[in-house]
Amino acid sequence: MRIAVITGASSGMGAEFARQIDRGEEDIDEIWLIARRKQRLEEVGKELSHPSRVFPLDLTKEESFQTLEDAMKEAKVQVGILVNCAGYGKIGNYAKVSRYDSINMIDVNCSAAVNITLSCLPFMRPGDRILQLCSTAAFQPLQHINIYGATKAFLYDYTRALRMELLPRKIAVTAVCPFWVKDTEFIAIAKKGQRNGEKPPIKSFPFATNSKKVVKSALRCSRRGYAVCTPGAFCTIHRIFAKIIPREALCYFWELMRRM
Ligand SMILES: NC(=O)c1ccc[n+]([C@@H]2O[C@H](COP(=O)([O-])OP(=O)(O)OC[C@H]3O[C@@H](n4cnc5c(N)ncnc54)[C@H](OP(=O)(O)O)[C@@H]3O)[C@@H](O)[C@H]2O)c1
Hints:
The protein is α/β, with parallel strands linked by helices. The protein is 47% helix and 14% strand. It has a single domain (2-259), classed as NAD(P)-binding Rossmann-like Domain (Rossmann fold), CATH 3.40.50. The chain is built from 9 helices and 7 strands; from the N terminus they run βαβαβαβαβαβααβαα. A 7-stranded parallel sheet has the order 3-2-1-4-5-6-7, with helices on both faces. The structure holds NADP nicotinamide-adenine-dinucleotide phosphate (NAP).
């Protein structure tokens, strides 16, 4: 049985990946949906025409990966597509973001991403694909959303080097790097905790796109075997400029952007 494994499938882009993989031409028998909120996963599952399985797991807990690996062994699956969308960010400087969130962001965005990949790889064969939801935040340091940006830089480098390691196994690995995506829970969660009346560290979220466009573009890039997917003009320009402009200058440019 060839399955798609999607983390962060209870909302936003993860749920949209489930829908588009379901409707698309992928050779998949079942879609496995992972996140903490069981009911939300079940609602997404009901929308799909493929059979689905719901795994209400907290990916910061080591035992979650054992649960998943046991289920994969028992069902004798091949993981045709792994999409890792689980992740979150918190806006604020070093003093504003709590110690809990500072460390938990690293756990979800970095450790869990590596863990889920290591869990799925033994079940993958030539022609199978991995998509890691990184961000344009990976391209430069970002004060006032610092740790989130640094976690995505880790994920981006991990993904690109993993791609090279997996070339002999003919497993395609793509780093998906959108700029702001507005129709997900991400921005509301990132802003939560900011006090009313306080000047927001990031004033608005210009040049935002939507999850349908990002997911469509990400699946196309993955099918073509691209290393990096920048779904939209702004993130493509950002990627190019980040290669040629010094990092200090990029930080000052971000200083202007976050006050816009
Ligand atoms: N929206 C943007 O502007 C944007 C831009 C660039 C990159 N991204 C990245 O894209 C990915 C998807 O984000 P989104 O915009 O779709 O946001 P979202 O709607 O908030 O989705 C995040 C998903 O992660 C899951 N998750 C969070 N913590 C988890 C944990 N400990 N264990 C298991 N699952 C967990 C959430 O499910 P539960 O709460 O049910 O666990 C949810 O399904 C993230 O990695 C994000 O960093 C987002």
